[in-house]
Amino acid sequence: MTDKSKRNFFRRISSPKSFIYPPYYKKKEDFINCLECNDKACITACPEKIIQIIDNIPTLNFEISGCTFCDECAKVCDKVLKLENKKDKLNAEFLINYKKCLAWNNTICYSCQDICEENAVNFKGMFNPIIDLEKCTACGFCISVCPNDSIEIIIK
Predict the structure, then answer these.
(1) Which residues span the domain enclosing 146?
(2) Is 30 left (phi over 0), alpha (psi -120 to 50) or beta?
């Protein structure tokens, strides 16, 4: 690995604009070991097909599905993702953009609530959903089903 690729990696890891990672790592800095991985088995192991590689690092993309915390990516990774490091929440928080949300704009829509297995999306009456951040695992399923791209991601 070149010094330039290491510098770029650490610049990205320490920058405020980061990525959502599979929930099986100890420290973000450990992902530098992914640069040496040739097979990227975590991609094919993921049954939801949400792992994508950006700068040789596995990140999660919620456009088509969400993370089930199924352990499959950690089972095939021998460098960074480990079952003993499993987290209950991903490194993100989700918020609803009230200006874009159909329900906040008087259109009946329960897409985010219907898919949420943690019951983290609560409605005030038929409208005005909010995400309970204590219950939300940031699994991403609500993002993949939102018809108006109203869920915003805050990377932690």
Answers:
(1) 92-155
(2) alpha
62 band by pLDDT with thresholds 50, 70 and 90: very high
Q: For the whole model, what pTM was predicted? A: 0.85
Q: Is 145 in the same domain as 106?
A: yes
From 49, 65, 85, the end of a domain falls on 85
Say how far residue 63 (Cα) sits from the centre of its chain.
Answer: 10
DSSP structural state of residue 130: E
Helix (H) or strand (E) holding 153: strand 151-155
Cα end-to-end span (Å), the chain:
27
> How far is residue 143 CA from its own chain's centroid?
10
* H-state helical runs in the chain: 3-14, 41-45, 72-76, 111-115, 141-145
17 shares a domain with 61: yes
Each residue's pLDDT tens digit, 11-54: 444 443 479 999 999 999 999 999 989 889 999 999 999 999 99
